[in-house]
Amino acid sequence: MAVSTEIQAPRSGRIAPEYKRHGRSKGNFEMFAWLFMRLSGVVLVVLIFGHLFVNLMVGEGVHAIDFGFVGGKWADPFWQVWDLAMLWLAMLHGTNGVRTIINDYAEKDGTRMTLKTVLYLASAVVIVLGTLVIFTFDPCPAGAAADLLPSFCRA
Amino acid sequence: MTAQNTEPVEPASKVELAPGIGGGGEIPSYDVTLRVRRYNPEVSDEGHWDEFKLTMYGTDRVLDALHKAKWEHDGSLSFRRSCAHGVCGSDAMRINGRNRLACKTLLKDLDTSKPITVEAIKGLPVEKDLIVDMEPFFQSYREIMPFLISSGHEPTRERLQSAEDRERFDDTTKCILCAACTSSCPVFWTDGQYFGPAAIVNAHRFIFDSRDDAGDMRLEILNDKEGVWRCRTTFNCTEACPRGIQVTKAIAEVKQAVLNRKI
Amino acid sequence: MQVHKYDVVIVGAGGAGMRAAIESGQRARTAVLTKLYPTRSHTGAAQGGMCAALANVEEDNWEWHTFDTIKGGDYLVDQDAAEVMAKEAIDAVLDLEKMGLPFNRTPEGKIDQRRFGGHTRDHGKSPVRRACYAADRTGHMILQTLYQNCVKHNVEFYNEYYVLDLLVLEEDAVRADGTPFKQKRVAGVVSYDLASGEIHVFQAKSVVFASGGVGKVFKTTSNAHTLTGDGMGIAFRRGIPLEDMEFVQFHPTGLAGLGILLSEAARGEGAILRNSEGERFMERYAPTIKDLAPRDIVARSMALEVREGRGCGPNKDYVLLDLTHLEPAHIDAKLPDITEFARTYLGVEPYTEPVPVFPTAHYAMGGIPTNIKGEVLQDNDTIIPGLYAAGEVACVSVHGSNRLGTNSLLDINVFGKRSGINAAEYAKTADWVEVPEDADADTIRLVETVRNANGTERVAQLRKELQDTMDANVQVFRTEQSLTETLNVIASLRERYKNISVQDKGKRFNLDLLEAVELGFLLDMAQVMTVAALHRQESRGGHFREDFPDRDDVNFMKHSMAYLDETAETEHVAGIRLETKPVVFTRYEPMVRKY
Q1: Could you tell me the sign of the dihedral formed by the alpha carbons of C313, C317, C322, C328, in that order?
Q2: From the CA of A37, how many Å to the nearest CA of chain B?
Q3: Contact in structure between B64 and B105 (CB atoms under 8 Å)
Q4: Where is it predominantly found (chain A) (predicted)?
Q5: Nearest CB neighbour to A12, from listed C3, C159, C203
Q6: Nearest to C156 among A2, A5, A9 (CB)
Q7: Pairing of strands C199-209, C2-11
Q8: Inter-chain contact C435–A11, Cβ cutoff 8 Å?
């Protein structure tokens, strides 16, 4: 009689490989990500409604918005910081949101990786471009054709 | 759960009973159609739906209908069950798209004019018909160290605990490990990596037990990328829990505890 | 043949099995085999509490507890065992608390206690608060806590492994007085893996049976579908006697028609029983402790009320459990689950309406005979080395002819612990008993016969007829005629059982096969139960013979021992030999049992 004592308890602690967690994650990234979503959400409510109020309600309201209006705002460091904060928080908030959606709905690791790479690239491009625009925006660049410039540049 | 040992008032020796008290009357019978998701890899790799037309009675539950189908129509219909009154947690299944215990779902509470669909719970590998492999579920449970860990000397008598401290974790002691919550969670459905509501509920039971000293270790485990932060507060788990545990609230309290510890 | 080798194999993962596993697992290589998952066991359905004379809320001591247990069991209790249980109850409760069990607390933070049926102060003077509890889910908490500690100690579980045979060998031996006899030895168990349909043999130095009761021989029962007397049946088929099988406890308060348990704790917290006239009828039957009389007395009183036409409902077939005079907040704090059962299953609101209840088969006092160490006996005084039993499957006998409420949770903890320790200690010094070459042959034959059964009888139909008969004839009231009729029905059912059909021919989770095998055990156990009941021509505890309504200490103050014996015949049933075993007395003389 072949006595084998090596047979493992088959339904005791042996689980299908796809359910095995791949190692422990170190650090508190997910916690900070979670916290960031809540805090950035609160700040964004203030920033966005402030932005909408100033742009749409104050003075002549929506009718006052034109190239000059935007140019004027970005001449002011206060509005530069405001818009920069709004851009960064909204982009990070949105990117993280889409990241979790990808994590929740992409079933294969490969798909997940691809989608997240695309997401991070797109976000990086928008954030970099947006930041550049806010800080380097010059409504009246020197040497430009006069008919392309807004009227106040001649002053 | 206050420990009030007040003497109850001695009840009357005789009272007038209202007529017809305690229910009664004819037991109504009705016809139901049970649509059961069948799967048997010994026969076919594909699942299919079977319909059973059954005559059921007043207080019958979905489990009674399944039994009737098995006992009178098709003996190969397979499902787990034991206590049949909602305390053992064997028969969690998807009934009309919602996770329920078959023994706690009365047929009369369902719309019997349409077929009642019964499937295995989602997110765990189906083994046969309504039976799933529970090991991944229990593995997550084991990982959160679901047992009292107490440092220091063992007292000779019981450890003292105030009624308020006992009440603090009362809700999460009710868990029967039926997996209705975990298998109702969309995050768990994706890849089965998430610890799942049940494991967090059982961690909560110890984290908030004043006698336990290993709360920090459990919080660290659940601070994992597959831990509490994957909860999206969809409340599916709370809705599914046959014991009425406020599962999502428990998860939120664990999140709060992780944050309080770190910040 | 796949053979696993363990020092200790525990059959069953309920309270007794896991309590044993916690002890044994720390001392020896241990495997626990269960036909369910551990947390599905029916210990989890126990509600009210676990008695121990902690004296946390009022004066109490273990000697009073011993007396109550013995009197509650109508003096058929082995008094040495009752003493052990009552004495060790205190540590059993404290052990559980240290393992993490969340008991309800007193204002000082100690374990709270409440009243329970038959538990009294100073030998019957008045009800005493002795039951330690966690709301009305004490059993659930015990089961979860024990499982948690099994996880902690890394106990190896074989879930959904259905044990079908016990490997018993016989050796020639000689007694102290020189008479030769056959000494039984245990080599292991044979199990059937439900998931794969494979047979696995487990060789073990010690085997602990903790497989629970046999409530499913009755139709109206608080027991789970899985409680089919497998452990008792396996032992019986292997020549091990069964003790006191005629004694079955009928719990007074099952939900009428369904049998779902409503804890005695309801009455402990002040609920009372009323008949159709609104009368608190227990005042007539037990003037001192009324609704908190032991279960056999209350169940019988209820059945009598119904029989005399004072039942409620359209068919006058139940009485009412009245909680309406209790504060809803108090009910919610102490009895949340059972009130939910009433709402869910009967649609009755216990705050404002009384709940329909009727006795439901609840607990088998009898079972595999053991001594106070948990060692199984092969006759009145010879142990089988290495074989242990604990919990409902065993008969120590601490419950005698009627178990007191809460004493089963106590039994599993005290004797589960003892069995676990003793099994592991025995395994340390014992030698392996060789597993026979054809160890799995009987089991394969059993399983394949059932799998290939292509007869005309449906298993469910036979089971239903058995349960209906048992409910009608072997319940609270029994007579010679009802019992004889039952034996005839069982005999014909056993014949028809040979002609069953099993539709599922597969290997994977073949639960059709499982139910057919279980029915075989049910039929065996029902027959033993009925034969023993017919033989006991007296009324004692849970066994009430209308034709012999009095206790007869002269002829029947002894345990019954039923053996499988092809050559014997008892009460015109071939194959069963009925012997007796003396009751152990220490300090309590039998008295008339009045409450």
Answers
A1: negative
A2: 11
A3: no
A4: membrane
A5: C159
A6: A9
A7: parallel
A8: no
CATH assignment of the domain containing B57: 3.10.20.30
Min CA distance, C98 vs chain B (Å)? 7
| Min Cα separation A62/chain B (Å) | 37
List the single residue in B75, B81, B174 with the smallest CB-CB distance to C504.
B75
Average pLDDT over residues C535-559: 96
DSSP of C541-590, one letter per residue? Answer: TTB-BTTB-S--HHHH-EEEEEEEEEEEEETTEEEEEEEEEEPP-SS---
Residues B190 and B235 in one domain: yes
Chains touching A, CB cut-off 8 Å, 3+ pairs: B, C
Contact C157 A9 (CB under 8 A): yes
Same-domain status, B111 and B173: no
Q: What is the dihedral of CA A42, A44, A49, A50, to 10 degrees?
A: 110
In this predicted structure, what is the pLDDT of residue B5? 46
Domains and CATH numbers, chain A: 38-141 (1.20.1300)
**Residue C562 token pair:** 């039923």
A31 touches chain C (CB under 8 A): no
Give the predicted TM-score (pTM) of the model.
0.94
One of C295, C463, C545, C593 is an active-site residue; which one? C295
- Does any domain span residue B159? no
Is position B19 within any domain?
no
Which residue segment(s) compose the domain that B249 sits in? 135-150+164-262
In the prediction, which pLDDT does B129 show?
Answer: 96
- How far is Cα C202 from Cα C443, in angstroms, rounded to an integer? 13
B contact chains, 3+ CB pairs < 8 A = A, C
From A64-73, C162-171, C529-538, the region with the lowest mean pLDDT: A64-73
When pLDDT is cut at 50, 70 and 90, the band that residue C314 belongs to is: confident
Contact B22 C318 (CB under 8 A): yes
List pLDDT tens digits, range C237-257. Answer: 999 999 999 999 999 999 998
Q: Do C278 and B86 touch (CB under 8 A)?
A: no
Q: Do A104 and B224 touch (CB under 8 A)?
A: no
Per-block mean pLDDT, blocks of 10 residues, chain A (155 long):
48 73 80 96 96 89 84 89 96 96 89 96 97 87 77 69
Chain C contact for A16 (CB, 8 A cutoff): no
The alpha carbon of C63 is separated from its chain's Cα centroid by a whole number of angstroms, namely 24
B144 shares its domain with B224: yes
Residues B214, B247, single domain; the answer is: yes
The torsion angles phi and psi of C537, rounded to 5 degrees, stand at -90, 65
Please indicate, yes or no, whether residues B99 and B182 belong to a single structural domain of this protein.
Answer: no
Contact list, B233 vs chain A (CB under 8 Å): none
Task: Looking at the structure, tell me whether residues B140 and B212 fall in a common domain.
Answer: yes
Please state, as a whole number, how many other Cβ atoms lie within 10 Å of the Cβ of residue A80.
Answer: 15
Distance from the Cα of C325 to chain B's closest Cα (Å) equals: 7
Residues of A in contact with C2 (CB under 8 A): 4, 7
Q: What is the mean pLDDT of chain C?
A: 95
ipTM: 0.94
Q: What is the pLDDT of residue B25?
A: 55
Find out whether the peptide bond into C397 is cis, omega within 30 degrees of 0. yes
- The verdict on residue B12 lying in a domain is no
Give the three-state DSSP class for C174. strand
The verdict on B172 and B240 lying in the same domain is yes
Task: Say if residue B256 is in the same domain as residue B139.
Answer: yes
C20-38 mean pLDDT: 96
| pLDDT of amino acid A4 | 46
Q: Does some domain include residue B10?
A: no
Cα atoms in the Cβ-side hemisphere of radius 13 Å centred on C179 = 3
C474 and C534 in contact (C-beta within 8 Å)?
A: no
What is the C-alpha to C-alpha distance for residues C295 and B117, in angstroms, rounded to an integer?
A: 42
Taking an 8 Å cut-off on Cβ atoms, the answer to whether C337 and B87 are in contact is yes
What proportion of chain C, given as a percentage, has pLDDT over 70?
100
Asked if C295 is an active-site residue, the reply is yes
Indicate the number of domains in chain B.
2
Name the minimum distance, in Å, from the CA of B73 to any CA of chain A: 31
- Nearest CB partner across the interface for B78, out of C99, C460, C509: C509
Low-confidence ranges of chain B (pLDDT < 50): 1-6
